[in-house]
Hints:
Blueprint: H1 14-43, E1 69-73, H2 83-93, H3 99-115, H4 120-134, H5 139-154, H6 160-171, E2 175-183, H7 184-193, E3 198-202, E4 204-207, E5 210-215, H8 223-236, E6 244-247, H9 253-256, E7 261-265, H10 269-277, E8 281-283, H11 289-294, H12 302-319
Helix pairs in contact: 1-7, 1-8, 2-3, 2-5, 3-12, 5-7
Amino acid sequence: MAALGWLTPRRRSATARSVLAGEAAAEAARKTSQELEELEAARAAEPEAPDSTGPAEPEFPVPGDTKAAAFFDLDNTVMQGAAIFHFGRGLYKRKFFERQELARFAWQQAWFRLAGVEDPEHMQDARESALSIVKGHKVSELMTIGEEIYDEYMAERIWPGTRALAQAHLDAGQKVWLVTAAPVETATIIARRLGLTGALGTVAESHDGVYTGRLVGEPLHGPAKAEAVRALAAAEGLDLTRCAAYSDSHNDIPMLSLVGHPYAINPDAKLRKYARERDWRLRDYRTGRKAAKVGIPAAAGVGALAGGTAAALALHRRRR
Length: 320
């Protein structure tokens, strides 16, 4: 596993690294958004039927307000679980790394789903593992694989309710961006598949189209997300007081606090408390009162989740 030194350069303060990560993410997002817009225009000729399982369209957003946009966290907000862990499963299937790394990914994903909150050390560990795994591989190769992984592990985990909220902004003529600590390439694939405008994500350094195993700045997490949204809003000419942001995690309070319309989606306990104190809107698409109280995805069930993880590991032991 790569050392932490290159992730936290001593010559830059934490604030400077957040700004750098945010600006890099904004630049990468704008670079890919034009292609996504062209694809969406092509799809508009054959519009999809509305999702009947989602909630009724909310009173917000305001149709035609092009100075407004929406920013959606990805993990446990748009999608059940963490994108980086699903990506790791797909890479293991393609023999990018060994069985012991898969066991670590499985444990981290199980912990994330059971706790319903992000653990910074687990997320950092997963990012370091992913960076060391992709080092030396072509960006184009990982993009192609990422498309396959989305179909295999991610498509069925999109929350219909959150998807409906994003669609409401699109229908109002507004841009919708994912904002995530996941690699920008993975986030861009998910955004395109969902018909969104683009994605702000962690930018991994590459030279001549090959990953170096280093980041540009730091992971797009916490304050760095707010910096990315701020930079993108300035570049796009948006009025943040008219924008909306959606997240499940208290780590995203800096981003949520930037906009005039913050939403807590499937919130963890800290965010739920913070949101209620400030009269922010809350949405919880997890089933059961237990999920609403303690942030556990009850649709999966503790027993089912533990059994599924154990079964997966047992299967790999048998294959060995």
